[in-house]
Model the fold of this input.
Amino acid sequence: MNKKESGSFSSVISINPYKKTYFSGESNLISEIKSPQFAKEQFAISYLNTNEFITAQIAVSKNISQEDIFDTITMQAYDELGLDEAVEYAIQYVENFNHSDEDNRLFHVFVVEPLALDTTFTNAIDTIKYIDVIIPTPLLLKSLYTKDIILNGGVHCFIYFQENDAFVTLYSQKEFLYTKSLPYSLLEMHERFCELYGEKISYESFQDFFTQQTLKETSSDYKLYFIKLYKEIFASVNDILTYTKRAFDIEKFEHLYIGTQLDTLMKFDEMLEAELSVQASDFDFTYGFEHKDVYVDQLHYLMQLYVLSDPQEQYISNFSIYHRPPKFIKRESGKFLTLIAASLLIAFAYPVTYWSLTYTQMLQYSLLQEKYNDLHKKKVTREVMIKNTLADKAKVTTLLDIERKEYTQKKNTLSKIHDVKVNYPMKAKLLAMFTKDLNKFGVNLQDISYTQANHAKEFTLSLNALNDKKITQLIEYLTKIHDKKFKFSLKEISYDEDEQRYTSALKVKIL
Done:
C-alpha cells in the first residue's frame, strides 16, 4: 500500500476481469480468493487488455496551458484517430518526457469505448461493488523500474501471452514507449494450431501440451506443428521490433522478456533468443511477495506492486468509472444531517439565541415578501414578452426549414461529386496493390469487375494460373495480410482444358 492509501486500506484485491480471478495482497503475502466479497478496507485494482483500447502518441504545443491540455488532447484524438464523434470515448494519457521536440509536449493517449468498460467489468462490479483503479496493461510494467526489479536502462521488450490477449510492450530508459496487441492469445494460438495440424483438438489437450511438454524432450505428433506456430509468433514479434526500431530510431534492444499467463515448462526465452539473436529471459521476476502453493499470474503481481509504489513515480491513467462514494460527512446528505445536529445543539444550548433567530427570520420574511411582490410584477411583464418572442420564433423556424431543405439538396450534390473524386482513385490504388500480390504468386488477372449496392463495394477478379495451388496460396496470403480491410470469397477453382490453366473468380468485399 502506498503512503497515501495505507491509512485507509489494509489489503489490496487485484482482479483479472477476463478470467474472473481475484488475488488478495496483505503485507507481503498474496493469496487467491475463490469467493470475493465487498470490503470497505480493501483497495481494488484491475486492468484493460491491449486489444480493448486504442493507443497513439499525440503532440501538443507547449503554448497550451495545463488546464486546457485534456480538451486539446481529446479534440486531437478524435481528429487524428478518426473516432466517431457521436460516441463519448473514455480518454486517458501520460506524458512522454524522452523526446527532443522543443516546440511540443508528447503524450501517450489511450482511448476506450464506454461499452467495453461495462461489458468487461460487469461481473467484478456485481461481486465487489467498486474498483478504485483500472489501468492499461502496458503501464503496469513501470513498477518493475520504480521498485528496482529491473535496474539497467536501454530499450526493453516485454512479450506476454494471456488467454484473451497477447501484447508486445517497449520501455526505453525506464519509460513507456510503445505497445501493440498480438493476434496470438492462447485461444487464438489454439485455433491456429488446429489449422496447421489439420484436425480440431480440444483446448484442454492444447493446454496440456503447452504447459507440460518441452520441444526438446517430447515425441508427440504435435511437436512439428507447435514449432511452426512458434515460428509464426516470433516472426510477428520480429516485424513489430523492426517497425519500432525504424519508427523510434532505436539502435538496439537491450533485453527481451517473454512469458505466459499459464505455468509452462516451455522455454520461450531460449527459442526467442535463438530466433531473434537478442538476449532474452523469462517474464518472471522476484517481486518480494510470498504465496501459498498456487501459480500467480504476472499481471496480478504487477497490480499488487503498482498499488505499493509511490504515486509520484507511477503512471496515473485510471479508466475506472466504479468509484466508491465519498465519506458520509462529505456527502450532501451527511452535510445536511450534520447541519441539523449542530442547529439542534445550538438551539438547546442557547434558547435566547434561538428566539432571537426566530424574530430575525420573521423580519427577513417580511422583506422577502416585499421583494416577491416586485418580482411577480416583473414576471408577468416578461411572460408577455416571451409569448411575443415565441411567435416570432415560429416564423423564423418556418424560414429555417426552407433553408435546410435547400442545404440538404446542395449537400447531397457535393457528396456525389466527392464520391467520384475520392473513390475512383481509391479503386486504382487497390487494384495496384492486388496486382503486386498476384505477381508475387504467379497468378494472372484475366478480367475485373466492380459493383456497389447498399453501400457495399465489391470487386470480382477473374484469375488464372498454371497450378491451382498458386491460387489457394494467394487466397491464404491475402486473407492473412488484409483480413481487417477486405473480405475474400472464392467458390471454386476450375480447369480450362483448352487453355490448360486453372481459373477462378475471387470476390473482394471492401470492409
User: Anything to note?
Assistant: The chain has a mean pLDDT of 88. The first strand starts at residue 11 and ends at 16.
